[in-house]
Amino acid sequence: MSNKTSTHKQLLKVCGLTALDQIQELILMKVDFLGFIFYEKSPRYVLNHLSCAEISGIDHQRKVGVFVNETTAYITETAEKAGLHYIQLHGDENEDFIAELREKLSPKTGIIKVIRIGNQKEEKLNMITKNIDYLLFDTDSKAFGGTGQRFDWNMLNSAEIPLPYFLSGGISEENVSDIDKLIQKPLGLDINSKFESTPGNKNINQIRKFKEIISE
Question: Residue 215: which pLDDT band, with cuts at 50, 70 and 90?
Answer without folding.
Answer: confident
